[in-house]
Amino acid sequence: MPLLEPNPQALRPGTKRSPAPDRVPELQSRGTPRRLREELTELLGAGKVLSKISDLVRYASDASPYRFVPQVVVVAEDIDDVSAVLSYAHGKGREVVFRAAGTSLNGQAQGEDILVDVRRHWVGVEVLDGGARARIRPGTTVVRANAALAPHGRVLGPDPASAIACTLGGVVANNASGMTAGTTRNSYRTLASLTFVLPSGTVVDTADPAADEELARAEPGLCAGLMALKAEIEADAGLTARIRAKYEIKNTNGYRLDAFLDGSTPVQILRGLMVGSEGTFGFIAETVFDTLPLDRKVSTALLFFPSLPAAAAAVPLFNAAGALAVELMDGNTLRASVSVAGVPADWAELPKETAALLVEFRAPDETGQEAYEAAAARVMERLDLVAPVASVDNVFTRDPKRISGYWKARKAFVTAVGGSRPSGTTLITEDFAVPPARLAEACADLLDLQSRHGFDAAVAGHAAHGNLHFLLAFDAGDPADVERYAAFMDEFCKLTVERFDGSLKAEHATGRNIAPFLELEWGTQATDLMWRVKEVLDPDGILAPRIVLDRDPQAHLRGLKTIPKVEQIADPCIECGFCEPTCPSHDLTTTPRQRIVLRREMMRQPDGSPVETRLLQSYGYDAVDTCAGDSTCALACPVGIDTGALMKEFRHQRHSPREERVAALTAKNFRAVEASARLAVAAADRIGDRVLQKVTGTARRAIRPDLVPEWLPEIPGPAARRLPRTHRPAAVAVYYPACVNRIFGAPDTHHGPSLPEAVIALSARAGKPVWIPDDVTGTCCATIWHSKGYEQGNEIMANRIVEAAWGWTGGGKLPLVVDASSCTLGIAHEVVPYLTDDNLELHAELTVLDSLVWAADHLLPRLRVHRRIATAVVHPTCSMRHLGDEGKLTALAEACADEVVVPTDTGCCAFAGDRGMLHPELTASATAREAAEVTARPFDAHLSANRMCEIGMDRATGRSYQSVLLTLERATRP
Fold first, then answer.
1. CB neighbourhood size of 480 (10 A)
2. Shortest CA distance to 104 belongs to which of 58, 65, 137?
3. What predicted TM-score, i.e. pTM, was given to this entire model?
């Protein structure tokens, strides 16, 4: 064990707690049973089998109110792995559940035996026929797929609110639709073909002309069974009519029995049945979608009404006018949305009875847009709208920023409302549909039902399609509260079916939540047919038992998860998973959601239990050490939960008093530390990479990997000992070279001025000279200490840099230009919580500009480009995302290159200062997809604007990244 290995017990929850009823039992503390682990490891290889209790716990939760701990998790890499697991399950009598994004809301992604991760190795999009179709792997998010289609002017039909995180495999398996899909643009209607693996292991590609012939050879009984069911259904006119009627409105409850009416062969029937089958019929390995036009002329309004029924009554008018989307939000939803960045603060003052419609028209051209706007104006004349707060204007807009803000508020429905629920309560998301003409009536009945059962629910939905969602919060650990929820569900389901002949699940699929009520909606005959379909396709019942079909009338109350209170910054989390795709460690260790899930399990456990102890033993590396701390999770989270900040706090908790004192001493003496670091880099340049890698490797093993960086060959030589001389009198801005650019030089492949020299030259060339203060040495943005959780050192440097910057800028009269995006973020924002009251006042007077903003907005308009390169690829950093500066990087690159590429899979490189040297495996994992895209073709330049991120990308791609300002200086040099 390394000498300075932190004590895992430092992160033991300190609050008093009572064991939760749904805690992981002590018998499972050792994880996967030995025999199961060994057999699967022998079958698949050790790297594909996750067996620690921490692995099982982090996969036990999804976005639903349920929690089931699997016996083992398998990370499947290909169809062979999936087939091997299915064969093993058949032979051993075991059960299998597939999980991709874990964003489903009814427990479909949870299993109690073998859980198969089909996200990590299943990502990819191939655009076909100029964008008319797209071949998409099941672990690909909807957002990622649409990003690939956008340049072709195309888009997928399904558009769920969770598009940032949900994957196409899950979208098809649940027939998820979203804001605009309705019944015509969903997966069932737009899926051209798919490849899937049946429970038997048989692989079917529905696009293969010989598919039916091959299936008949491999599965004659299955084919005969499907055709017999088809004949039986078609022979019953009443049943046929009932099936057709059920899909006139949105419906994902039960199996798609209309597949027997729409398909004429077993393969065609299976193509339909797999949609909405929720993983109970097989594994969807690949999809091919017919895409739709991406109409770019958009007009949108957020219209406010005095009540929910009043808003609902206006929906048919906008439908008739041709609106593509009409979204409903009640007062609770609107008020909860103030937690979403960009939503007007005065929404918190909206009357509870208020409701709003988000109405959007999309057209291919200006003429069409004007026609839609005229139709909308005629509808508006008939409405009695209200403006209860100042920010409400009730007008249509074409402004992309405002439209984006409206949709951000709407899509945050579940997370924003869920985040504002009482601490310790479980969130239930219900989803139903009624005939659109009866929507106002359904809203009134729903409000009455909620009131009678003591729920103050939030309501929103796809009003254009008669589809409503509402949220209920209750204490899953309180039997009386569970009973209250159960009574509500019984009455709600009867109301929906018996009064409105509606769908109990319009787009979220049956799952565990509605399985007991399937027969209530469909009747005995149709439900019996669904059981028989399952018997034909999965006679041994190995796939996803108790999902869709369950004869237990109390099944929806089994496995409800408690939500124990955790640290305040993370407590609002509803485990939706929106944060996961952006997390740099999501393919290596844990995600933000999983970090919180693991923490909650610790809180469920009695103090000192074997489960808690083993979770703590894994948490240090899996959660704390391999968190890049980039906080992009906060950007993805609709309520801004910053799990990165929590991990930094945990790093602080693990520090010994001695470590904190050393860090503070380093901050106090940073001038000497900086000089020593530069000398060390210079010495290393002479010693050679192989020797340094051996020395640092030995030191890391002896001391602690999280304290001793690994030497990387990509680390450049030293910066010049002295900064260029500048003059203050004529300067229009103060230039602050970040410490990283004062220690490390330009890439070895760069021949020309240093970054400070380039910034000075560009500024002078544009008639905007800058001044570098003589005493910048020994100062820093404080990110070094902040990212590692060294509180005292952070406070020392944060206050020092603000005091110095205030003096340099003449009390804020001149802007401070910073040449590393992470340092800009640090000085502009991250230092604020650590400042004294006096320095808070000084900070408020500062104008901190990133060098990208300085160059793009202040210099570029005054510069003349003399030479251009053909191609460039850019790496926007996570700090740029926080600052909103990504567009500036692209704009500067476009000034220098004829073609600029922003990789579709760009993301945080996770180098994070020196974290990529402490844990190189983190950067390797975080950059894998972006690196593959970058290295697939040659570029003349690889550009970014943060030295450590550039080093990280050098290592990831084998290409040489440099600041875009160096390229701009060369391009504009006379």
1. 9
2. 65
3. 0.95
